[in-house]
Model the fold of this input.
Amino acid sequence: MRIKAIKKSPPSPSEVGQAKLKIKNCGLFFAFILHFTFYIFNCFFFGCATLPKEPPKPKVYLEVPSNEYKPIGKELAVTFIDVGQGDSIFIKTPNGKTILIDAGGTPYWKQSDYDPGEEVVVPFLENQKIKKLDFVIATHADGDHIGGMPAVLRKFPIGSLYENGIVSDQPEYEEMHRVIDDKKIVTSVLKQDASFYIDSSVKFEIFSPPSNFYFEGENNNAIAIRLIYGDVSFLFTADIEYESEDNILKTYGDKVQSNILKIGHHGSATSTSENFLKAVNPEVAVISVGAKNNFGHPDSGVIAKLQDADINIYRTDEDGNLTIRTDGKKFIIETEKNP
Ligand SMILES: [Zn+2]
Done:
């Protein structure tokens, strides 16, 4: 009978390494289980802790008191015109180009003869001695944005008019297009990813509507524009809501950062998500809203978010026309009321 001697050879260095690795992995596994059990225990008895939030990006403060503002070079001026419940923004660039974003208006269903285009926007532009509008942007087809457009289009020569590309059956849209056809105004469509210089030093970046699809409903398809002049930037969000804000964040991330944010949809609770506000990280918020409107705009939750984020709030219902002047380095805000 042959007995086979079993000789145990000493483990090789690689075997020792593997064994150590196994022990280490086991340790890690048990540490993980322990940690997880502790977390579940904690969640059960004390509620789940939220993940630690990233520290907010430092805000760049460019707003200065008017007596400290000594413009260096040419100025850009942006006026949020007080059209009541609606939007109308007039921009004059350093080289004198004129841009109007929306013209206010009374939605047809209000059955009112009051036309803020005729009563407010045209007189404002005449007061400014404006002879021509180089660019007119109709952000979307809602009456509080384009109801006043026909009066403006009839009154001034128009360079070109931009829309979001959606054909609407709203009466205000049809009326605006009657004037566009009568005056043979050149129209184009603006969509996400377009960017161009409107003046040698003033850039427009278009964030909305999406380039390859449309959302349901008018608001989320509104044209959203970031304007950049030197170190100062504005974000005009028209009536976009959470869905469009999320899409913009997904596409542009931190590139949405702007010093001045025109709050979406007159401060409605359906706009200005916390993530969007955090990414834009504005120093100043402007709310274009009518006094005692029927919609409860601006929403108290939106105001609280802005206050919590240490953002200066200006409102057309309280401040009247708001003009922001900037030399591209600093800016000041002039209010018609409450100077
Ligand atoms: Zn609106």
